[in-house]
Structure formats: C-alpha cells, structure tokens
Design goal:
This protein is α/β, with parallel strands linked by helices. The chain has ten helices and seven strands. Strands 3-2-1-4-5-6-7 form a seven-stranded parallel β-sheet, with helices on both faces. Helix 1 crosses helix 8 and helix 3 runs parallel beside helix 4.
C-alpha cells in the first residue's frame, strides 16, 4: 500500500454527485477507497461496481457526518484496522435556497453543522494522523459562491466562504508537515445538488452548468500539483475575476439576478 497508486483515499459524501465521481476517478487510478456517506445501499452498490471493474479494495462506512462523535469513531475504526488515509476528499455538504428568515431554524443549523463543524472535525482528525506520518493530501470542496454574497443563499455561501478560507490557511500551516491542502470551488454542476437544495435553475445557470467529471479532474490535478485552490471552468473563472474587479454593489446585484432570476 506504500506505492502512490495504491494509497488509501477517503471520500465523504461518496454516495452521489462529486463524491461518487471522485470514487470512480481514483478507482481508475488504482487507489484503495474508503467510501463514507449515510446512504448505505448506494455506497454498497458503488463499492461492488468499483471492485469488479478496477480490482481495488473498497471499504464502506455508513456514517452520519453531522454527528461529531461519529466522525471520531470513524477515524478510530480505520486506525484500528491499520488503514492510514493518504488522501482525504472532504466533499460532504448540504445547501438550501430561500429567504433566511423563512427557513426552519433546524434546517439552517443542520447546514452549518455539516458544512462547517463536521467538515472541520473530519479535516482535524485525519490531518493529525497525516502530520505524524509527515505526508498526506486534503481536498476541501467549497463552492464558487465562497467568493460571493448571495441573496437567498446566505448561510450556504457563508459556510463555503469558511471552507475556502480554512483551506487557504491550512495550505500554509500544514505545508511544513508534508501535507497539501487544496480548495475546490465548483460552480453550478449537474450533481443533483440543485434539486436537494431546492435551488432555482435560471436560464443562465443551465447554460454554465458543468458535468461532474471535469470538475473532479480539475480538483485531483490541483491537489496533485499542490495548488491552494482551483475554480473549474472558464465561465466560473470569469465570474471570480468579475467579482474581484467590480464594486460589491454591482457584483452582488448581478449574482442575485443570476441565482434567483
């Protein structure tokens, strides 16, 4: 397991969307996988498919990542089995579109719990193990909205801004310990996230929507290259440049119209 293509990759939110695509692409490279999500049936189906197609080891872990104690137990179980995670894809997340004050408080706080607290906990426990071995790679999945202030996506965009800033700080902080930390900031993508988040798909959003495969490839390449962050897709890169180059009132108005119609 000490050759690069046989190292263990842990992927959270692996039952669908980007997580499933990360599993497929890393499996194609010959990596052993730990797939983590709540939906056990989907994880098991994916694991069987990847074992048969790529002849790799796949470990399935049904975990509610919003439970911090469950995150700690996951790390302990893997350590007890001698599974040392070389690459962590911290992908699990949840979004919800709509007016902030109209949303149930439980729904708002569950978003913060998964997107901020749980992501931080997963990163912390596995970074500690990587630091002891003086090697490792961590990819934090943020969002293009991390660069924006977006009406009706206030909590989600704020949570993803946290993920981006955390990755940027840890990129420098953990580099001295042999650990690479990279933020992946995808724009609108065809992952099923929009439906789960009750997000309105405007005409412009449909036009710039990316498939999961090129987004994941961009993330894997950036992590391998040791980059601090990556925004996949030329249209998404243009949005970031537009944000940097214009006053807040202008790009916030444009993004509000883009995201809400």
């Amino acid at each position: 397991m000490d050759t690069p293509d046989k190292s263990w990759v842990l992927i959270t939110g692996a039952s669908s969307g980007f997580g499933e695509e990360f599993a497929r692409q890393y499996a194609a490279q010959g990596h052993s996988l730990v797939l983590v999500a709540r939906r056990l049936d989907r994880l098991q189906k994916l694991a069987v498919e990847l074992r048969q197609q790529f002849h790799i080891e796949v470990v399935v872990e049904q975990v509610d990542l919003s439970d911090i104690a469950a995150v700690i137990r996951l790390h302990q179980r893997l350590h007890a089995r001698g599974l040392e995670i070389d690459i962590l894809i911290n992908n699990a997340g949840h979004g919800l579109q709509g007016p902030f004050a109209d949303a149930p408080l439980d729904a708002v706080l569950s978003m913060v719990q998964l997107d901020v607290a749980s992501l931080t906990a997963v990163t912390h426990v596995f970074a500690q193990s990587m630091r002891m071995r003086k090697r490792g790679k961590i990819l934090l999945v943020a969002s293009l909205l991390a660069y924006q202030v977006v009406e009706n996506l206030a909590v989600y965009s704020a949570a993803k801004a946290y993920v981006l800033r955390l990755a940027e700080a840890l990129h420098r902080e953990l580099k001295r310990d042999g650990i690479t930390v990279t933020a992946l900031c995808p724009g609108m993508s065809d992952t099923g996230f929009a439906q789960a988040a009750q997000q309105k798909l405007t005409t412009l959003l449909r036009r710039v929507m990316m498939k999961p495969a090129p987004v994941v490839r961009a993330g894997i390449r950036a992590l391998r290259a040791g980059r601090v962050s990556v925004v996949p897709g030329w249209a998404n890169k243009a949005i970031v440049i537009f944000t940097w180059a214009t006053p807040r009132w202008l790009h916030q108005a444009v993004m509000s119209q883009t995201m809400n119609g």
